[in-house]
Amino acid sequence: MAELITMGEALVQFNPLMKGPLRHATLFERHVAGAEANVAVAVVRQGRRAAFIGRVGDDEFGVCIENWLRGEGVDTTWLRRDHEAPTGIYFVQRGYPLPQRSAMVYYRRGSAGSRLSPEDVPEEPFKIARILHFTGITPALSQSAREACGRAVELAQRFGVAISIDTNIRPVLWPSTEEAVRVLMPMIERARFLFT
C-alpha cells in the first residue's frame, strides 16, 4: 500500500517543437502532466510507494495517463475512468506572446479531472498512508472537486495521515482571490506541510 496519496487532475501536455504562436505549430511532443501526478512519480522514483486518486476520460489520453503512472510504479487503484467527460489537455505556447516566456493554453473545463467528487475518495488508502498531498488547483476545478478535497482532508485527519498542500494559486481558476482564500484556508490550517 502507498505511503503517499496524491489527489488531483492529471492531464496530457502538448509541447510544440517550435517557438511562437500555436497557430503556426505543426509538430508536438506529448507528455503526461499535473502537479499531483508528478509528485507521485517523484516519490516512487525515490524508492517510496505512492498512489494517485483522480479521474481521467475513458479515452486514449486517459489510457496514456494510466499507463504512464503504472509504468512509473504509481498505484492507480483509485484512478477512475469517466465515460462522459474527456481527459483534460493543454498546450505550451513557447516564446509567445513574450519572447522569454511560455504560456499554457488549457482545455480542461468539463474534463474528467474536474469531475472528481467525494465518491472518488475511498477510506481504504487512508488507513495505510502516511501523507496526503494535493494542490490548490484541485479545489479550484469545480465544486465537486472542492468537496473531494474536503473529504480527503477529513479522512486524513480521521486516520492520522499528515496533510501536505502546495497552494499553487492559479488566479484564472478562481472567481476571486477572496474565494481562493475562503476555500483554501480551512484546508491549510489542517496541513502539516505547506508549499507556497
Name given to the CATH homologous superfamily: Ribokinase
| Cα Rg | 17 Å
And the CATH topology?
UDP-N-acetylmuramoyl-L-alanine:D-glutamate ligase
Q: How many E-type strands?
A: 10
**Helix content class:** 25-40%
Put simply, the count of helices is 5
CATH second-level architecture: 3-Layer(aba) Sandwich
Q: How many structural domains are formed by the residues? A: 1
> Which CATH top level class fits?
Alpha Beta
- Provide the succession of SSEs: EEEHEHEEEEHHEHE
In whole angstroms, the N-to-C terminal distance is 29 Å
Task: Give unreliable regions as ranges.
Answer: none
Strand order of the largest sheet: 5-4-1-8-9-10
Strand content: 25-35%
Shape: globular
Query: Which class best fits the helix and strand makeup?
Result: alpha/beta
Average pLDDT, to the nearest integer?
97
List the main descriptive attributes of the protein structure presented here.
196 residues; four-stranded mixed β-sheet; UDP-N-acetylmuramoyl-L-alanine:D-glutamate ligase; alpha/beta; 29% helix
